[in-house]
Amino acid sequence: MATRDIYETGFDEDVQTDSSANQCPECDGHVTTNVKETVCEDCGLVIDEQRVDHGPEWRAYDEEERERTGAPLTAARHDRGLSTEIGHGTDAHGNELSGQKRRRLARMRREQTRGRWRSKAERNLAHGLGEVRRLASALELSKSIRDQGCQLFRSAQDEDLLRGRSIEAIGAASIYGACRCNQHPLLLEDVVDAARVESTRVTNAYRTLNRELELPTPPMRPTSFIPRLISELGLDHDIRRRANELAERAEGATLTNGCQPSGVAAACVYLAAQEQGALITQSTVASTAEVSVVTLRSRRDELQAI
């Protein structure tokens, strides 16, 4: 006889004893089911245990307010978000603490801060992840890209890539690598502007990450930069659609091979704006795309020759 045929499943009651089908498969004795296990009262056979709790995983203090039992684990913190915070001045109910309790909490807070990191590696990890979170916030990146950047920083530390390199440079390279893996139209110069380190260090750190970790970074396409250029230049939707058509034509003619994608995108936007009669200069488009005017003119001439 199968276990599912022995008793009727019901998770809303603590003990079930009223079913006539509750019989032990060994001795045909009486079976009792509680919240944890199903046991035969005669021979002691445990028929089922560790039952699934189908109750809510949230807690409610009133009918309108429901709170989860805790925040989910995150890769953006060195302790996965399981840190302990000791408050100041008041208890959990908002009541004022006495002077003796405040001094005691201050001593506990000081000791907790001193013992927060078990090693220098964990302290460096906390500092690096904080830098990654700061860059993601400054660049207005999504939470998924931020978490991927934090995971890249963890992988870099596990592979001992931080030795001899700046933590800020590895953090900036992790953010840029996460953007490249997701084909996010972010230039390296944008990351450098928000970072607290020189451009050469960020470039070298990204090359190291890309080589040692074998990042799945596909080539950037000019179409990825066009929406950003259109938004920053304040152009309309018709120019954007025409610029995308020009970019796809350039990719089909292998014009983008060996060329900077942002330069091709800038040329497509400039040509589309000229066709639509928009008054915009080459220097404005080039500065927005962070390329030189000479690069924009070269890509424009190549597009016109197709």
From TrEMBL:
<keyword id="KW-0863">Zinc-finger</keyword>
<feature type="binding site">
    <location>
        <position position="43"/>
    </location>
    <ligand>
        <name>Zn(2+)</name>
    </ligand>
</feature>
<dbReference type="GO" id="GO:0017025">
    <property type="term" value="F:TBP-class protein binding"/>
</dbReference>
<dbReference type="Pfam" id="PF00382">
    <property type="entry name" value="TFIIB"/>
</dbReference>
<feature type="repeat" description="2">
    <location>
        <begin position="224"/>
        <end position="305"/>
    </location>
</feature>
<dbReference type="InterPro" id="IPR013137">
    <property type="entry name" value="Znf_TFIIB"/>
</dbReference>
<keyword id="KW-0805">Transcription regulation</keyword>
<feature type="domain" description="Cyclin-like">
    <location>
        <begin position="130"/>
        <end position="211"/>
    </location>
</feature>
<protein>
    <recommendedName>
        <fullName>Transcription initiation factor IIB</fullName>
    </recommendedName>
</protein>
<feature type="binding site">
    <location>
        <position position="27"/>
    </location>
    <ligand>
        <name>Zn(2+)</name>
    </ligand>
</feature>
<dbReference type="InterPro" id="IPR013150">
    <property type="entry name" value="TFIIB_cyclin"/>
</dbReference>
<dbReference type="GO" id="GO:0097550">
    <property type="term" value="C:transcription preinitiation complex"/>
</dbReference>
<dbReference type="InterPro" id="IPR036915">
    <property type="entry name" value="Cyclin-like_sf"/>
</dbReference>
<dbReference type="InterPro" id="IPR013763">
    <property type="entry name" value="Cyclin-like_dom"/>
</dbReference>
<comment type="similarity">
    <text>Belongs to the TFIIB family.</text>
</comment>
<dbReference type="GO" id="GO:0003700">
    <property type="term" value="F:DNA-binding transcription factor activity"/>
</dbReference>
<dbReference type="Pfam" id="PF08271">
    <property type="entry name" value="Zn_Ribbon_TF"/>
</dbReference>
<feature type="repeat" description="1">
    <location>
        <begin position="130"/>
        <end position="213"/>
    </location>
</feature>
<keyword id="KW-0804">Transcription</keyword>
<dbReference type="InterPro" id="IPR023484">
    <property type="entry name" value="TFIIB_arc"/>
</dbReference>
<feature type="region of interest" description="Disordered">
    <location>
        <begin position="61"/>
        <end position="104"/>
    </location>
</feature>
<feature type="binding site">
    <location>
        <position position="40"/>
    </location>
    <ligand>
        <name>Zn(2+)</name>
    </ligand>
</feature>
<keyword id="KW-0479">Metal-binding</keyword>
<dbReference type="InterPro" id="IPR000812">
    <property type="entry name" value="TFIIB"/>
</dbReference>
<feature type="compositionally biased region" description="Basic and acidic residues">
    <location>
        <begin position="76"/>
        <end position="94"/>
    </location>
</feature>
<comment type="function">
    <text>Stabilizes TBP binding to an archaeal box-A promoter. Also responsible for recruiting RNA polymerase II to the pre-initiation complex (DNA-TBP-TFIIB).</text>
</comment>
<dbReference type="GO" id="GO:0070897">
    <property type="term" value="P:transcription preinitiation complex assembly"/>
</dbReference>
<feature type="domain" description="Cyclin-like">
    <location>
        <begin position="224"/>
        <end position="305"/>
    </location>
</feature>
<keyword id="KW-0677">Repeat</keyword>
<feature type="binding site">
    <location>
        <position position="24"/>
    </location>
    <ligand>
        <name>Zn(2+)</name>
    </ligand>
</feature>
<dbReference type="GO" id="GO:0008270">
    <property type="term" value="F:zinc ion binding"/>
</dbReference>
<keyword id="KW-0862">Zinc</keyword>
